[in-house]
Amino acid sequence: MKGSKVLRENLLAILTMAGVGAGVALGFGLRARESPWSPRDVLYVKYVGELFLRMLKALILPLIVSSLVAAVGSLDLSLSRKIGIRAIVYYMVTTIMAVVLGIILVTSIRPGRSGPPDDVVDVQARSRETTTADTLMDLVRNLVPPNLLEATMKTYQTVLIPPEDPVERNNTHKNDWRVKGEFSDGTNILGLVAFSVVLGVTLGGLKEKGKPLLDMFVALSEAMMVITGWVVWISPVGVCFLIAGQLVEEKDISERFKSLGLYFGTVMAGLIIHGLITLPIIYTVFTKKLPFRFLANMSQAMVTAFGTASSSATLPVTMECLESKNHVDPRVSRFVLPIGATINMDGTALYEAVAAIWIAQMHGKPMDVGSIIGISIASTAAAIGAAGIPQAGLVTMVMVLNIIGLPAEYVSYVVPVDWLLDRFRTMINVLGDSIGAGLVYHMSKADLDDIGSGASDTEESSPGDSRTDVSVIEHKHQQAFS
Ligand code: ASP
């Protein structure tokens, strides 16, 4: 009887995992029938997955803005500050731990000792020339968007224009190239997060006067969560076709792994250690609870992260799992998760460090203490700056390569296996955000109880309890105001 109950409660997660299995089988089956597939056929295979992804993406913007404003606005300033600081400290500490782990692994395994594989150098790099200073300044610039409507669609970036003459190009330093600023396609989530926090703090401070607008954001965030509840039921099919489409699209998979296997294995070892050992231990040490149930309750979010390769697209599902299954107070989850999904990427940070050192090893570049420290800082910044979208880490890696004096084109080395590594590192990114939210909730429980009744007495339900208490945040925010 117990077995059937567990099955019923976890039906969606089980179906989604079956979707992954079916996607892999379908992908390889289709490859066996015909290879390579034409771009149009790939398009057809991907179609259903694409629709699922579009639905999730449609939720990101309203969910992030409304959740942050509602959560921050319903806390008093000192409590939001406390929760915010706890979350940021957790993000920094775990990201640095991930980077250090990556560096230890890559310097002891030395995956780049046999030199560069010759079959990947021709892969087209998806990189642009920038200096580290430009990338860091862009990160801060994007925190302050000049136009909020534009921020929903465009992100600012500095572009360097090299001299047209190739000789002059080679003889001048990048710092002397012409600098241009431009807005490129892609939501500036960082800017919207920053503004939402400011708006939430302001509305909370306005008390009664701010209440109508705050109520609107509370209602919007609840509505987004209800829609999320519907969309997640499409995940089994969506994830299946996303994965099948990707497999059909990839060229000679086994060849890629032959030459990049050691690098792939090093990143994977780091991700597994960080996700299955480091983070759960941190959870257990601080909450004095075993992490298994908490992790099992997050399985739907994990599979969605694997299927979509995007922590932003997974955000609605992560929130749903945390609130309805792990019973994290929405004032905490809706505050820290959107920020976490944007800046906290342990998997990406680890991978950036491993990849950069692997490339340096292949080119026989010695690593001194200064370079290792530089790589650690740059990998952390690159992970913060990477958007929660597929393969964003590939773009910010240019900065890490820059730090150790390697050209941006070398990013091409990691491209062949990046589509798969990206899925695994996104899972770790989402796991890091989830454990962070669980920890911050645990630490802030007493403070939250002081301003309103707790969401529930138990922090975790049995796996699969998918009740979403949509009235909780509303109720708490009423209480905070009364
Ligand atoms: N795809 C990752 C994420 O969304 C970012 C990356 O590492 O490329 O979390």
Automatic annotation (TrEMBL):
One MF term in GO for this entry? neutral L-amino acid transmembrane transporter activity
Q: Does the keyword Cytoplasm apply?
A: no
Compartment annotation: Membrane
The record's listing under Gene3D superfamilies reads: Sodium:dicarboxylate symporter (1.10.3860.10)
| Transport keyword on record | yes
Compositionally biased spans, kind Basic and acidic residues = 466-482
What's in the keyword line of the UniProt record?
Membrane, Symport, Transmembrane, Transmembrane helix, Transport
Cellular component terms per the entry's GO annotation: plasma membrane
TM ranges are 12-31, 51-75, 87-109, 189-206, 227-248, 260-282, 335-360, 372-389, 395-415
Give the start-end ranges of region Disordered.
452-482
Its name, as the record gives it, is: Amino acid transporter
The species is: Folsomia candida
What's the source species' lineage?
A: Eukaryota, Metazoa, Ecdysozoa, Arthropoda, Hexapoda
